[in-house]
Amino acid sequence: MIDPASQVPPTAVSLDLSVVTYNSARWMAAFLQSLLKQRYPVASIRLLVRDNGSDPAQYAACKALLEDAAHHFADMILTRGENVGFGAGHNHNLRIAQAPLFLVCNVDIEFHPDSIARAVAQAMQDPERVACWEFRQQPYEHPKLYHPASLETGWCSSACALFRRSALERVGGYETRIFLYGEDVELSYRLRDHGYILKYCPQAVCIHHTYTHAGEIKPRQFFGSTLANLYLRLRYGSPWDILVGWALFLALWLHSPPVPDKYAGLAANLWAAIRNTPYFLRSRKRSDTRFAFLRWDYGVRRSGAFHVTPPLPTEPPLVSIIVRTYAGRQGWLRECLKSLAHQTYPRIEVIVVEDGSREAADLVEEYQPCFERIVYLPQPKRGRCHAGNVGLENATGELLGFLDDDDLLFADHLEVLVAELSAHPECELAYAVGMEVATRVHSITPLMYEETRHAIVYRQPYSRFALWNHNYIPIQTALFRRTLYLRHGGFDETLEYLEDWNLWTRFSLDASFHFVDKTTSLYRVPADGHDERQRQDKLDGYYATARSKQRNMQARLSLAELETYFHEHARHTYLVAISFSQVRKLLVSSWLLRPLLWPARIVTWAIRRRRRT
Fold first, then answer.
1. 319-548: CATH homologous superfamily?
2. Distance between CA 533 and CA 527 in Å, rounded?
């Protein structure tokens, strides 16, 4: 099985590329250059450009650049009109489109050389029900949630997205009453309301010059996105979603980000909302699909929205991922291997160790073309720790990691951690944030489940002292150098649970860890409260056993590190920790408490006077 997102199509497919400009001359040259460098033949691309009432000088500059490059494309059509908004501008281009695929993008985009080829290859592989494929943005990846195995997502950003033209025409294109921001979410929800599927295409990468700095608040984005959120709730939300939307919308008058002309913008939005509410209510959704709203977001977000990944080394090291599985887990294992096949990192070795059975042989063989090397090691039934150690012994990579069969990695997990370890050579282990997903399983064969809750439980910057007290590094979140394994060995096979905590604790005795504040993986816990309590009771009951393994561990600490240890231990152990010196200082310095010291002072004075006499 070859991952279609990593393959260039054997023959080029006709493609319409739609761009809407508004005073965009500064971006046009770089945008066109990135197009001309595509491995996808630009002679198969029709370039459709709609100018939304730019300044005449800006329009003339863009027109000159487009005309100079026009002979490279199958056709180039430039039209000009009033500023009708982002979505309406692309609707204009959609009416003159001819190709089966319609690529929508901003002009402040630069494509990686193989990005269009990868997106088209994915589109050619997917069934007709898939209507859209979103490109991955750099330097800031959009933090919305997607499924790491299926790559399905709740909505696609139109900063750069490939559409099936027939699907766009069926649903009527973009909603023209949303001028800017949020129109892509509305179109995504309407496509899903008509039964279409949307996908994320992490192998197709573009650079998006959208923010001048991390965390920037753009006034037009603030006003446009908050108004669009209310519109979407009116059309796709439940009565409760609509009520919450109005409450959030009106609450902006009391508290909102510091943007220029805040009250004038809010007043304009309020009038637009009152005027358009009947329209959006009349055009309510037609299906029973549940559409997500979470305050101002459209579903769960992954942490790390503004994390910038360092560049990968020029010669990327081989990464070995050890997957532990056992009988009856092929559905989970297939998803696990899919998430590994979708990784954006190029050099991966997968070691699949099956404990006590031989069911996964054919499945592992199916994924042979996806990795640099994949090894299947069936073992007699000896437990998860033994399976992990067999994987470690047979791994050949410079960097090592674990992925249990029901855990999943988001597509950039390995890319992020390898880049961070390369940028921090003094560290021997890097770990990111893992998302806890409460999962209710309906069927094992075929695998059918429901994800009921997504939460970030551990988001702890590295502290070796806190790690000695409790485990905050879920096993799939970490990637470590082989040198750590060679010095400290693998899992303690006498442990049944918390074996990963024991391993991290031993590694931490003489190594530095690096924390990456970005969600790059997920792990599952039972959705049923009873099952979750039983799971937690087992872990809590085994805590003392795991702590007893630490008694013979030795670490060399400086006095400064020892002092830090006591402070961190107090912070993680006690609700309130006050030292004797702090109490004494409080008693002496507080004028309210000084009268309480008078009797002691009188007694002390009397004793001293008696001794002198």
1. Spore Coat Polysaccharide Biosynthesis Protein SpsA; Chain A (3.90.550.10)
2. 10
Distance CA 16, CA 96 (A): 9
The two tokens of residue 88 are 């309406």
Our measurement of the distance from residue 136's CA atom to the centroid of its chain's CA atoms, rounded to an integer in Å, reads 11
pLDDT at 303 over 60: yes
- Report strand pairing: 448-455 vs 429-443: antiparallel
User: By C-alpha distance, which of 264, 96, 255, 87 is closest to 183?
Assistant: 87
Only one residue has tokens 């994949």, namely: 374
Q: pTM for the full model?
A: 0.87
Token pair 């295409």: residue: 201
In angstroms, rounded to a whole number, what is the distance separating the alpha carbons of residues 420 and 432?
A: 10
- SS3 (DSSP) at 167: helix
β-strands 160-164, 130-138 pairing? antiparallel
Tens of pLDDT, residues 406-447: 999 999 999 999 999 999 999 999 999 999 999 999 998 899
Report pLDDT for 578: 65
In the chain, domain spans: 4-210, 224-301, 319-548, 580-612
How far is residue 230 from each of residues 77, 120, 182, 244, 245, measured CA to CA in Å? 35, 34, 10, 9, 5
Q: 583 Cβ partners below 8 Å, 6+ apart?
A: none
